[in-house]
Amino acid sequence: MSTEHPKVHPGLVLAALALGGFAIGTTEFASMSLLPYFAKDLGVDAPTAGHAISAYALGVVVGAPVIAVAAARLPRRVILTALMAVFAVGNLLSAFSPSFGWMIAFRFFSGLPHGAYFGVAALVAASVAPAEKRAQAVAMVLIGLTVATIVGVPLANLVGQVIGWRWGFVIVSVLASLTATSVWLYAPRVPADADASPLRELGALGRGRVWLTLAIGAIGFGGMFCVYTYLADTMLAVTHASPAALPVVLMVFGAGMTVGTLACAWAADRALMPAIGGVLLWSAAALALYPLAVGSL
Question: Using an 8 Å Cβ cutoff, are 250 and 153 in contact?
Fold first, then answer.
């Protein structure tokens, strides 16, 4: 019997992985844009409603290392499919949250697959691309997330305004189900690494550079998310913008993320560390200007 694996089509693989990024990006950012609406419906104020965003983030923090260690001996295709299935269930449960307490629990559950998905998806994307284009291949996975901020998030916000915030999470559940199916069909059918083990995965945490990299990412993303979490509420309460303006502003933000991701991937394939430094400085400058700009749409 032949042991050859089915032919892999890199374009289809990257498209399937990017669809997962689109689903994750939609729920991650849409939940922030829908914050004023589910806060009112679940009977809490906006600062308290922000704990639902924190619960999702905590799920990401807990899930990424735990799943990476626990699934070390599973094929990546199986891991990705299972992660998206769990993600679909978590968001469907979020849509039916009967109270804010349950919303917190379901958002934590939804966040568990997030970090592990992007980690494994990045490895799969890099494996189907030439060495000199691996950063751009990984960027294609993240493009799904940034495109979500252009299309998925404004759409979810609009749906939330028109027919209810719960439907935004239903949409994400459907997207996650489509991703699970696509990944199962198109991802490389490669067996797990025979030498992989939970102890080897944990061994990476003994390296100082790993912790430094994680710290840089946490600080860089943390600053941006602190602002974005309350962007919708700030626009309504401080900028006094119309709710109809929210999807437009979210699309503008998403367009910036998409252009930045493509440009930075190109730069990273040529000069990795200068590209990272430049991105962090750019982000710091933009966030410093934000408080001065919120008074004007």
Answer: yes
